[in-house]
Amino acid sequence: MKKSKKSGARSDVLPVFVSIATNKGKVRFSNEDNFYADILGIRGAEELCGHRVLNYSDRYVFGVCDGMGGEQFGDLASEIAVTAMREFSDKIKKASLEKLYDTVNEYAAEANNRICRMVQEKGADLGGSTFAMACVRGNLVYPFSIGDSRIYFISGSKIRQVSEDQTLAVKKLKAGIYTKEEALLSEDAHRLTSFLGADRGRIGLKALVYEPLDLAVGEVLLCSDGLADMVMDEEILWVLMKYGDQFAAQHLVELALARGGIDNITCIVIRSVKS
User: Fold this and answer.
1) Confidence category of residue 191, pLDDT binned at 50, 70, 90
2) Is residue 53's pLDDT more than 70?
3) Strand (E) or helix (H) holding 275
4) Is residue 269 within 8 Å of 19, Cβ to Cβ?
5) What is the C-alpha radius of gyration for the chain, rounded to an integer number of angstroms?
6) E strand intervals along the chain
């Protein structure tokens, strides 16, 4: 493959564009969401809107972490999860495809253990954070998640939820106890079955892994449930199709706020830049 003498960029790989927005919402007193984008060098703000076109660098890591608002110290839990993600970012980017899943699980175990220590030190009953991660390698995105922060893939006029919500409602849906509508409306929809901080015995917390996504034919959205609970999938699709600009993530946050903004909202939109 041809390479640019100046940047080393592969000619068949499109530049990556990222749009990020977070907001504490209209009800919460603070923002317990947190995010990681190793190219921005920023994290943790109650309100933020940013975007960047990335010069080709083979690999990037992006993540959304949602501290458990119903538990104690959710803000610290998500901050710990993001700090660990930053520390593991280089290792994740350098890992071979064969070792990538194991490396992500090393991150998950370390973040889990740190959160468990924090909870113990604070004398709290429980604390934790979800995470949704996108590992970008060229045109491909390798997605991972724990909890109910979501990953979507938007291609053409279709949107698909890639990630699986690790909730009691989904577990009961799979068991045939709930219908899809009952699962959606149930209180169990927010009862997590897995999250960073849940593995107190440290027997091993495993991330869910999904098929790679191709940025050449679509875009990837990472978001906390503050978006998914307020905005239907079809509306997310409509916003991203209508607003193809640098404020894509902010448009999604604004729609969730307009619908009530009952939770913290964080969105990361990852697109390729086509000529």
Assistant:
1) very high
2) no
3) none
4) yes
5) 18
6) 16-23, 33-37, 47-54, 59-66, 131-137, 140-146, 150-155, 158-161, 208-209, 213-214, 219-223, 265-272
What is d(CA 213, CA 154) in angstroms, rounded to the nearest whole number? Answer: 10
Pick from 115, 117, 95: nearest CA to 104: 95
Run of H or E residues at 86: helix 74-94
| For residues 1-10, average pLDDT | 40
Spell 86-106 as b/e; 16+ CB within 10 A means b.
eebbeebbebeeeebeebbbb
- What one-letter code names the amino acid at 15? P
Which positions ≥6 away from 178 have C-beta within 8 Å?
A: 169, 172, 186, 188
Structure token pair of residue 256: 């969730």
pTM score of the predicted model: 0.90
- Alpha carbons 211 and 158: distance in angstroms, whole number: 17
